[in-house]
Amino acid sequence: MQHTVAAMWELGVRRIVTLSSIGAGDSRPYAPWYMRLMIRLTNFRHVFADHAAQEELLRLSGLEWVIARPVALNDKEQLGELVVRYQQTPAPFGISRRQLARFMVDSLRGDAYVHKAPLLAEK
Length: 123
Hints:
By secondary structure, the chain is of the alpha/beta class. About 40% of the residues lie in helices and about 20% in strands.
């Protein structure tokens, strides 16, 4: 991420939308207990440490960043209603890859989530 941020500044690109996860960084309390346990007791702790480091670099970068933190991903074709939370676990606990992709592309164009790290789910 350090190299990405440096290249973005060099090339004049100011907006980045990145993928993280519920349970990363300051969203750890909003991950379900079993997910927090799995992160703590398995090699997932390394993955989530990388997510947290990436998030911190973006927050300090001076760029226009959006950090998408989806809950459990699924392959549903039909798009449901997007659920965006910040200080609580989203319910229901799942989002389609398709809906997540739509959120990320829309965030490149719109300003609603700039400098935010929403927890994302889908009804």
